[in-house]
Every structure is written in structure tokens, then in C-alpha cells.
Amino acid sequence: MGDKNISIGLFGFGCVGQGLYDVLNHSEGLKANISKICVKDKNKKRSIDASYFTYDKEEILKSNNLNVIVELIDNSEEAFSIVKAAMNNGVSVVTANKKMLAEHFRELYHLQEKNNVALIYEGSAGGSIPIIRNLEEYYDNELLSSVKGILNGTCNYILTRMELEKRDYTDVLEDAKKAGFAETDPWLDVAGFDTKFKTLLLTIHAFGIVLNPDDIFNTGIQNISYDDILYAKQRGLRIKMLAVSHKVGDKYRVYAIPHFVNAESELYNVNYEYNAVEVEGAYSCKQTFVGKGAGSHPTGNAVLSDISALRYDYKYGYNKLKKALHGKTEIEEGRKQIEYDFSIKLYIRYNKQEQLKDLEIITIEEEYKSAHTNYIIANVNFKSLFNIYNKRDNKLFICAIE
Amino acid sequence: MGDKNISIGLFGFGCVGQGLYDVLNHSEGLKANISKICVKDKNKKRSIDASYFTYDKEEILKSNNLNVIVELIDNSEEAFSIVKAAMNNGVSVVTANKKMLAEHFRELYHLQEKNNVALIYEGSAGGSIPIIRNLEEYYDNELLSSVKGILNGTCNYILTRMELEKRDYTDVLEDAKKAGFAETDPWLDVAGFDTKFKTLLLTIHAFGIVLNPDDIFNTGIQNISYDDILYAKQRGLRIKMLAVSHKVGDKYRVYAIPHFVNAESELYNVNYEYNAVEVEGAYSCKQTFVGKGAGSHPTGNAVLSDISALRYDYKYGYNKLKKALHGKTEIEEGRKQIEYDFSIKLYIRYNKQEQLKDLEIITIEEEYKSAHTNYIIANVNFKSLFNIYNKRDNKLFICAIE
């Protein structure tokens, strides 16, 4: 595209869409403008002129005057059909939809190859932190051993307020909804699905391994109580919802689970809606990236940075994935490198003993029982955690100890 | 260069040069090899085969078989003549020599334009932290307000050990020399010149302003004593040698001075040879990058990442500088945006009252005198600090309070 004016077709005008509009209007260097915005709700009041909007997605998809489609809607299946149509029309796409990317990565990867178009998505993980671009460009020849971090602003915001205000989960969750830091149905965020989708994306760019969402175990803070926060505090620790993707021996372990972190950790002071990613490599050693992980402007800025990169026809090189494939197209092979049968040390708070029955407990190191609360510190076979995976009626709070 | 094998001519085989050799040999993805290494000392024992080495720089500069010149020698004037010759021959250059870059930036910038070759230098600031690339690529359209951080591994290593081991400066400095974290003549590091050169480079990429080294005031830890560490510790603070380049109103303030940082700061836990850079923008808010700022492999890795980028004919776009120039070539204009006449709050430890005479003290907020040590907390006209600039016989320890 060179230095031409970029004409953008935008889908969605929620939090990030409006953020992009603001950031774009205040950017001096970039010649880009939003031509048309497709939204769903005809009755919603909009902050900008009505002439921007359309309710017919074909009006954007069939336009010949657009250089870039930016997809920022909630529904991941609808998003997928929009992104697919745009790419098949030969138009490059910028998105921040981690759920769509995680659920349809294989097809989206092949669509990029088939149509020779770019699909870039810096806003999908770590909000304003340029993590995907750095994994792609800076660590492309580095033998990485670990990528982990705080990737969900909602969880971190709730955890921070619980600790600092000494309040219980449900209480703070309601406040977070009011403050715009939690959705009406917060399940995907608080139960760790959002963190998991992002972990999946980072695992592709760091290690060249493509997993399915169900390959990665996640549990979150959905069952946390102030007792857990207090337990951590008394020991100089903080609870952080972490994405973990690391190499142990010649296998990889990937999961999204709350962890205790100590005051020496770079992650300890990452609070409220801030995110952080730690990248460890054989030669670059440990690097940490910290920045706002949610919010209209920070994420809008990440999207803008992608739009700007398209001027130079930027595409992800997927170097690690291509190397792993060795010219083959069998993305499935990478999944065999994931290890499930290992022992993980966990703090598990429960109400009734029978809640523990689905877990394969190897050894119990500590046990605490009271009229008020019970917990164990135990080594558990990681594989058995899948027995409680995605069960809304499960009431355990699980926190990993490293 | 595409996917071709990259043939490297290397100048210098010290700490970073050897690191590059190691990292390159263990990189699986990159087709690159070191063809020839020019070194000075014929008598020095080398860790690799003698056939690699030459003592005649022309053997590398006049070779037609090299794609990249990597310059990693100590002497900045010699480095400049090598880099200039290579660029005039149409060969792209990777360097980590911040002193050379800071002292000759104008000419080096024009050489890039004139010869249409790349000069890239990620290893010159922040060691393993990809800060220049991120300023160039990710923040290229972002209105940044501040770039600051810990950029000198030697200072940070000494400050950390002084605090943790309760030891005095000269003592720890000797240890740092033995551990390879300080040079035989440590002046450029401990007195803040190295931090200043890096600040100068970050100011170019963040704000498009090109300064001369003497435009930027620096003082370092050369006169620190354990009393200062203790003063900080008693108040829950740590002393960190900081680079500061930020916008206040419509002017910029740029300097390299030790600062007190509190426990809430992301910089507080950045210890030993680690570096950190905080970038603040109007829309991306505050982002922090932390990683090893010194050492053979981390810096070697940054150099490797530059070499890898040259495969795709990567060049810095200098977007902010070009925007500032508006098509003109008068780099000088930017200097007028720097502010010198402002009040800065400082902790100043001194032995004799007369040592303070060169400073224009506006108000004194606290004063402490004892048989052992004296200090003041004072608001000082920043401009007057230049009266003690680069004076080895000046014995003040100065630390900024924010």
C-alpha cells in the first residue's frame, strides 16, 4: 500500500471500535480513515455521525474501495464468517478476536496462504503490549523456553481490588461490571477461557505449536473467596491468573490457572487492568513486557499499530510454525509435543471432601480444615484436572504453587 | 536478501562479539555465518579457529562476498571510520556502539539516505530489550509523552550489590570489574555517559529530536556512598540510575541522573544487570519492558535479531524524525525544543559547603549536617547543573526526587 491513504471498513463499534476511532483521529502520521462501520443495533445511540454506519455487512464486504477490514465484534462465529469472506475477497484483515482466532486458527492460517493476504491481530493478546509482533520479529530465531503472564484484565482487576479493599469476589465482580471491566456474563473472563485463548495464540507464535482450545486446561477465579486472598497475603504472596506455556525437557506444558506469585516476581506489582508477559529464551534470558491489557484506547492503539503495519504489506511470517511443519501442512503434529501426565503442586480450597474425588491426588503436603474453610496443598496429576474442566457446578478454587 | 545465506564480516571479538558467535551457532532458523573477524590484538588467545581472524580491516571492507558488516569494537572513532566505509561501499551495517551513534548520528543518518543502506542498532540500548524496534514499528504513530528507564547494567549491578550486601561503592566497583560488569576505566558507565548516549538514541526514535551528547546533562553514581543507599532504604526507596526523556508542556526535558524510586514503581525490582524502559503514550498508556541490559549472550541476541531483520531488507523508518523535518534536512531544529530553564528537586550530598557554589539553588526544603555527612533536599535550576558537568573532581552525589 506504501504511503497511500488507507480506507478502513470496520465491523463493530463497541469499546475497542470507539477506541480505534479516537486514536485514529488523533494520530498525525498515519493517513487512514474509517469509511464505513457495520453495526447490529439500529436503536443504539452512536457518538459519531449516522452516515458512518451501515447494518448490512455486504455493503462493506462487497465494496471495492477499502484496503483493510477491521473486525471488532463480540460474536466469534459471526466474526469468523466476516473475516473469511474478506480474506477470500483478497482484503487484509486486522482483528482482536482471540476466541475466533483460537477456535478457527487452522482455517485462518490456510486462508492467509491461499489468498496471500494478511491477518494480523496484535490487539488479541496483552492489549497494548506488542507481544505477538515481538515474538514474530524479535524472537524469530531465539530458542524460547517459556512464555507466561497475566493476560486477562478482568481477573487482574478483580484480584487487585479484592486484596486492596479486603472484599469478597461477588461484591467486587459487581463493581467491575459497573466500571466496564467485566461483561454481563463474565464466565469467559473469570473462568480463564479468555486467558486460555490468548495462551493458545502465544504458543503458536513462540513455539510453532497449534492447539485446540479444549487441549488447554483452564480454571480461573470463579470460585475464589477472600480467604484465598488472605492465605496469600499472610505469606507475602499475591494471586495472579496466569497463562503458562513452557518447555520442560523435550515436551511442552500449556495451561491457564491462578498462581501464587511472590514479591520478587516482576508480576507481583502488575495490578488492576495491567497485563504482563514474561518471555524466556536461551540467549536473551528473561524479558518482561508490562502494559494496559484492556480498555478502549490501549487496545485501539494496538489495532492502529496493525493498520499502520499493513501500509508496508506486513504479514506474520509464522517462522516457528513453518519450521515445525518442515514444508508439510500437518498442523496436527505439534499437538503431540504437549505433555499431560505430570505432577503439579496445587492449593485447593473446597467445601466438601467429595468435591475432590475427580482429582488424581498423588500426595498431600498440607491439610487444613475448619468450620469455615478447608484446603489442601497437594501434588495432583495434571491430566485429572480435565475431569473438572469447564464445569460450572464445580466449586473448587485451584491455585498453582511454583 | 530474502532467504539467502547471510555472510557476515565482523569487527571485534570481545564480550558481545563472542556472544554473537555462540548465539548464531545455536540458532536453527537463520542461515547466516561469520566469514571473517577483524581484531586488533595478535597475541590474544582466541576461543575459535585462527582462520577466522584478520588484522587488516580492508580485508573485510574490500570483500565482495559479504552481505552485512557487524561492528562491535570499543573505540568509537575507529568504529565510525569502519561503519562509514562499509556504508559508502553499499553494505548494510549492524552495530551496538552507542557512543559512536550518539557522537556521529547526523552523518550516519545522511549516509543511510545517500547510500540507501541500512544501519540498525538494537543492541546499542537496553541490551536484550527490543526497545528501538518497538519505538520504530509499534509506536510510530503514537503520541509519546515519556521514555525513561534503567539503561546501564554496570550502575544497576553496583547499586543492587551495595544495597543487598551493605557495602560501599569502591569496594563493590572492584568486585564488578572482576565479575566482568565494569570496565577497567569505568568512568563512561558510572558517571552516566553510557546512559546518556542511550537516552540520546531513544529521544531520536521516540520524539524525532536529534541532540548532541553535550546537550544532555548527565551525572551518575561515581560519588555515591553507602549513606545514600541507607537514606533511600530507610524511606522505602531505591536509587536507580535513570535515563529521562519526556515532554512537559510543549518542551522536552532530557537528562541522565540517579533517581529515588519507590516500591510501587515497576523499576524498583529491576536489579543487578537488568535494564528496564518505560514508554508512555497518550493512548497506549504506560508500557514497561524489562530484560538483561548487559552480557555477552543477551546483547549478542539483540545483534542477531538485527542481522535476521536484514534478510527482509529492514531499515529504520525514522518516521518521527522525518515528520519533524517536514522534508527539510535541518536536523538542528529539534534542539530548540529542549528546555533547560526549569526547577528540579534534588537530594545533594556534599562534604564542604563550597562544593555547592556552582549550583543555582532556588529553595532548600531540608538540610542535614553531621560530622559524618551532609545533604540538602533542594529545588535547583536545572541549567546550573551544567556547571559541574563532566568534572571528575566534582564530589557531589546528586539524586533526583520525583
Write the layout of secondary structure elements.
The structure is a homodimer.
Chain A: E1 6-11, H1 15-26, E2 32-38, E3 53-54, H2 57-61, E4 68-71, H3 76-88, E5 92-95, H4 98-103, H5 105-115, E6 119-120, H6 131-137, E7 144-150, H7 153-165, H8 169-178, H9 187-190, H10 193-207, E8 217-218, H11 226-234, E9 237-248, E10 251-262, E11 274-281, E12 285-292, H12 296-310, H13 319-325, E13 343-350, E14 361-369, E15 374-381, E16 397-400
Parallel strand pairs in A: 1-2, 1-4, 2-3, 4-5, 5-6, 8-10
Antiparallel strand pairs in A: 7-9, 7-11, 9-10, 11-12, 13-15, 13-16, 14-15
Walkthrough of the structure:
Two copies of one chain form a homodimer. In chain A, a hairpin with a 3-residue loop joins strand 11 (274-281) and strand 12. Chain A folds into two domains: 6-133 and 297-330, NAD(P)-binding Rossmann-like Domain (Rossmann fold, 3-Layer(aba) Sandwich); 144-293 and 333-400, Dihydrodipicolinate Reductase, domain 2, CATH 3.30.360. Chain A is α/β, with parallel strands linked by helices. The N and C termini of chain A lie far apart (48 Å). Chain A has 13 helices and 16 strands. A six-stranded parallel beta sheet of chain A has the order 3-2-1-4-5-6, with helices on both faces. The longest helix of chain A has 15 residues, at 193-207. Helix content of chain A is 32%, strand content 26%. Strand 12 (285-292) of chain A pairs antiparallel with strand 12 (285-292) of chain B, so a sheet runs across the interface.
| Helix count, DSSP H or I runs of 4 or more residues of chain A | 13
CATH class of the largest domain in chain A: Alpha Beta
Main sheet characteristics of chain A:
6 strands, parallel
Distance between the first and last residues' Cα of chain A? 48 Å
Name the helix and strand elements of chain A from N-terminus to C-terminus, one letter apiece. EHEEHEHEHHEHEHHHHEHEEEEHHEEEE
Report the structural category of chain A.
alpha/beta
- Name the biggest interface: A-B, 49 and 49 residues
Q: Tally the beta strands of chain A.
A: 16
The coarse overall form of chain A would be globular
CATH superfamily caption of the largest domain in chain A: Dihydrodipicolinate Reductase, domain 2
Average predicted local confidence, pLDDT of chain A? 94
